[in-house]
UniProtKB/TrEMBL annotation:
Organism: Pedobacter steynii
Protein name: Signal transduction histidine kinase internal region domain-containing protein
GO molecular function: phosphorelay sensor kinase activity
Protein keywords: Membrane, Transmembrane, Transmembrane helix
Membrane-spanning residues: 7-25, 45-63, 84-104, 110-132
Taxonomic lineage from the root: Bacteria, Pseudomonadati, Bacteroidota, Sphingobacteriia, Sphingobacteriales
Length: 344
């Protein structure tokens, strides 16, 4: 293939240009080039082949020049226009140096029709050649631009996820330490157990953060968190926890269920009823948390905050178009339902 491209194609290119010009001239003048003097035909064919080799050599050098000056592989209309202008200019110089003098000293001299054919036909083929050869570079530049854009987008999303995670950790630490603080005065042994439980929770957040985790690990984490929260909860709390036994090795992103549970413990009131349920729903995991709230006006009840806003943004980043989060507030109760698509 390299041999053909280097040694055969330039000759064919020159012959294609020559016979196209010859065909148009013969049709216009009602003549036949094979009836001309073969010495003259041979001379013109040799000149055309020479032009083919010179053209391809000049074109390839221009392509190397273009590639060297292409800014970071980026493609733009201004750059393409500049390339094409230089390319056409180089082709016109070559045509005027060889084709026009050749035509002037053969046949009956050089007419304006000959000038038009000798300029337009080689230029047309040069533009076609430019488009075919450079299309691969344009495609590569386009793909590189798309990859770069995707990389920048992914880096931005990863940075935002890290920020959201960093934003959540102080929130979690404050609530957990606050729980242990109140326990210290009344039950020192219980406070020690709480610190041990708290260390397990913190270890999971710090060291067990794979890209995705089996949902059973999330359930174990939630059970530990619930046990820690029950310590500082009111004795009136009526808690119902139901986790579907089928929830096992399904893969989910970590720490998405926790904000809903934490929010329920934070705002539970009224008759102090709370339910936490998780189950398989076809190809999805359905997680539902419901808690009673004090009987106050809507404007005085604040059932959410940084935790839920953080969760909404993380869901949009991690599960675009693959989740639903419903928050329902009634007079005496608040219900949050999260549905996400899991991976096997």
């Amino acid at each position: 293939m390299k041999f053909f491209k280097k040694y055969i194609f330039p000759a064919l290119y020159g012959l294609l240009v020559y016979f196209t010009i010859r065909l148009l001239h013969d049709l216009a003048s009602d003549s036949r080039f094979w009836e001309r003097n073969w010495v003259l035909n041979t001379f013109e064919i040799i000149c055309s082949i020479l032009i083919g080799y010179l053209s391809i050599i000049i074109f390839e050098r221009l392509f190397r020049y273009f590639d060297h000056n292409l800014q970071s592989g980026r493609l733009n209309y201004q750059g393409v226009g500049k390339e094409l202008s230089l390319f056409v200019l180089a082709n016109l110089v070559l045509v005027n140096l060889i084709f026009l003098p050749m035509a002037a000293f053969t046949d009956d001299g050089l007419s304006w029709a000959d000038v038009a054919d000798l300029i337009m036909i080689p230029t047309l083929y040069a533009i076609i050649y430019y488009g075919i050869v450079r299309s691969s570079n344009w495609l590569k530049a386009y793909v590189d631009n798309k990859v770069l854009l995707e990389k920048i987008t992914n880096e931005h999303l990863e940075t935002e996820l890290k920020f959201l995670k960093a934003q959540y950790h102080p929130h979690f630490l404050f609530n957990a330490l606050n729980t242990i603080y109140f326990q210290m005065d009344e039950d020192l042994a219980g406070a020690k157990r709480s610190i041990e439980k708290f260390s397990e929770l913190l270890r999971y957040q710090l060291y067990d953060q794979q890209q995705q985790v089996p949902v059973v690990m999330e359930i174990d984490y939630l059970n530990s968190f619930i046990e820690l929260q029950k310590i500082r909860s009111s004795d009136k709390l009526q808690l119902k926890v139901v986790f579907d036994p089928q929830l096992n090795q399904q893969l989910v992103y970590p720490l998405l269920f926790l904000p809903l549970v934490e929010n329920a413990f934070k705002f539970v009131g009224g008759n102090y009823q709370m339910s936490i349920e998780a189950a398989i729903d076809q190809e999805q995991i359905r997680f539902c948390v419901e808690n009673s709230i004090p009987l106050v006006s809507f404007n005085e009840t604040k059932t959410g905050g940084i935790g839920l806003e953080n969760l909404k943004r993380r869901l949009n980043l991690l599960y675009p178009d693959q989740h639903s989060l419903t928050l329902q507030e009634e007079t005496d109760r608040f219900k949050a339902t999260l549905t996400i698509k899991y991976e096997r």
